[in-house]
Amino acid sequence: MTSASLAERLDGLLFFPVTAYGPDGALDLDTYRAHVRGGIEAGAAAVFACCGTGEFHALTPEEFRAVVAAAVEEAAGRVPVVAGAGYGTALAIRYARLAEEAGADGLLAMPPYLVVASQEGLLRHYTALAGATDLDVIVYQRDNVVLTPPTVVELAKVPGIIGLKDGLGDLDLLQRIVSAVRAEDPEGKFLYFNGLPTAELTGLAYRGIGVLLYSSAVFCFAPEIALAFHKALTTGDDAMCNALLDGFYRPLVELRNQGRGYAVSLVKAGVRLRGLDVGEVRPPLSEPSPAHLKELAELIERGLALVPTSEA
Q1: 60: annotated binding-site residue?
Q2: pLDDT tens over the chain, length 312 residues
Q3: Which of 15, 30, 121, 126 has the most Cβ atoms closer than 10 angstroms to its Cβ?
């Protein structure tokens, strides 16, 4: 096992695998292992198990532990494994401890369930979570969690909280957060992640404020495309970025926006289209329509055709 910290190891394209189910709807851990193994072999820098794309909301605690353990075993120390943790404080701590038992390297702290909390309440929640586990914690800002710059400054001081994943998309707010944290600790190593669905679409904008880490749902079903975009983004090949944005990512987002829950179900359908039967999404999510599946298949082929031959 490496002695490097989680923050030091999160450098590259981040893989958020889907959770595989069999025809009866139960976990299919063998297929899940194959999915995780394929992602690592394709070049993922980390595995984020049982997060949004992995249907955290749909898993029992026992299933959660089994899936995280399977990811850890497949990773075998080659890349870090980060697990989701969410709901209220007590349950978030329970999931954190299950992830720790399963061998995870860190946590992605999902938004608390249902409530719209004050800044003080959110600070208490994430501080309690970080204090209850030895795992490093990344706080996920989205939906009912909108953090002010002063709150993130305080979170950055909490031992064990190493970063902020932004799923809100308010770049003005994020820039002010980055600036406030940097002013407080100019030498700090606090991490920032682009956590929007289909993060590549906003990759150039986030790069403008220094945020290069992001979660790639496309990597689940088209690692060739995701890796080509990541290379272009990090090397400054904006022409390739724009070619992939225009020919693949923008149409994909327009398709994604045609259905509720497509940020997950469309990704899972893409994995099946590429030959790995990971099953359907669990309720309350639903499957894409046949017409949308056909459009997705055509988009994947179009995207693959845009990848330079040397990288395909």
Answers
A1: no
A2: 455 799 999 999 999 999 999 999 999 999 999 999 999 999 999 999 999 999 999 999 999 999 999 999 999 999 999 999 999 999 999 999 999 999 999 999 999 999 999 999 999 999 999 999 999 999 999 999 999 999 999 999 999 999 999 999 999 999 999 999 999 999 889 999 999 999 999 999 999 999 999 999 999 999 999 999 999 999 999 999 999 999 999 999 999 999 999 999 999 999 999 999 999 999 999 999 999 999 999 999 999 999 998 665
A3: 15
Candidates 3.20.20.140, 3.60.15.10, 3.20.20.70, 3.30.420.40; CATH matching 6-222: 3.20.20.70
Is 140 catalytic? The answer is yes
In 3-state terms, what secondary structure has residue 176? helix
Contact 7, 163 (CB under 8 A): yes
Active site residue 249: no
Active-site pick, 32, 165, 214, 262 = 165
Query: In sequence order, what are the residues at sequence separation of 6 or more whose Cβ sits closer than 8 angstroms to the Cβ of residue 102?
Result: 65, 68, 69, 72, 83
